[in-house]
Amino acid sequence: MGINILGIMSGTSLDGVDLALCRFTENKNAWNYEIIEAITYPYSDGWRKRLEEASLSDAFTFASTHIAYGHLLGSYVKDFLLNHKLKADYVASHGHTVFHQPDKQISIQIGDGASIAAECRIPTICDFRSMDVALGGQGAPLVPIGDKLLFGTFDACLNIGGFANISFDKHNQRIAFDTSPANIVLNLFALDKGYHFDKGGLIARNGSINQDLLTDLNNLNYYHIEPPKSLGKEWVDNVMLPLLKTYNDTTENYLRTFSEHIAFQNASIIRKYQLKNVLITGGGAKNVYLIERIKAYAPDAGLFLPDENIIDYKEALIFAFLGLLRLKQENNCLNSVTGAQKDNCGGCIYHINP
């Protein structure tokens, strides 16, 4: 017997909301998956602005956005399933991260689960991070258990989204961490040219490296901290962007230099842990120039780009899988990854009759 779960993912790069209807079956204690259908709903300018400003809003506006965003996600679910004549047994939503400061035991994802369930009339699982953070963990990354159980044939899984993160086994334990900011910064510079992102890295390719800036970026303290560790938008706003603003350079050079920074940091991890077979997903996997630069820094590693459905929807797939583990009351968050007191099973479930 299989189960159909619709995974929802909204990343910090604000490209849009990914929905993936996934079917899971278990065979001899191993999980098989199929992405039945998937779609990305781009954010309207109004919603992109609302999400960008959520961290600065007053309490009432924040609560209102949390509820309204839940109804928006629920309406996307309803529209998606109706248009494709499909059915889901459950919805599993990551939400959209507004605050991530695990050192203060705070990690907040908006998108009210009750509102999602009320809108689409499907039981909804959400709030996957809170239990881990309450147990003293980072609450992120969350995908490594999915990497291990669904993509275990690879030495490592590297996802390049708003932030880049990697997961792999070390001494028979899964570890994972954010390796660097990625599209959350690249997209800011692309906007200077009137684009939401630098397609294929074409703008970056035409720039030159600002060596002083690159050195300062690579010397940031975060890169010298051992995992478990994770990054949030606040770190970019408070540390990364002020550093970038101390330099006065062209958009092309900023994109070239920051692409080099991403490539250097991620390739350094690949080399350090001697990872030979690396699956790359996320929007950054489509940045041809960035992938070229990672290969240049890690020439001995095999970098594998899967089919487009996995590149685009792997995180939505894995959140569907985390929802499945929550339903089975099995651990879906690993303390070897997050530093929490123990492995844990995170997620709230909003049951609703059709």
What would the keywords be for this entry?
single chain, Nucleotidyltransferase, domain 5, 2 domains, globular, 354 residues, alpha/beta, six-stranded mixed sheet, 13 helices, five-stranded mixed sheet
Radius of gyration: 19 Å
Could you name the CATH class of the largest domain?
Alpha Beta
CATH topology of the largest domain: Nucleotidyltransferase, domain 5
Name of the CATH architecture of the largest domain: 2-Layer Sandwich
Assembly type: single chain
List low-pLDDT spans: none
- The number of helical elements comes to 13
DSSP, total strands: 13
Largest sheet: 6 strands, mixed
Order of strands across the main sheet: 3-2-1-4-7-13
Residues in helix, %: 40-55%
Strand content: 15-25%
Averaging pLDDT over every residue, what do you get? 96
Give the helices and strands as they follow along the chain.
Answer: EEEHHEEEHEHHEEEHHHHHEHEHHE
Principal-axis shape equals globular
Helical/strand content category:
alpha/beta
What distance lies between the first and last C-alpha atoms, to the nearest angstrom?
A: 21 Å
The tally of structural domains comes to 2
Query: What is the CATH homology-level superfamily of the largest domain?
Result: ATPase, nucleotide binding domain
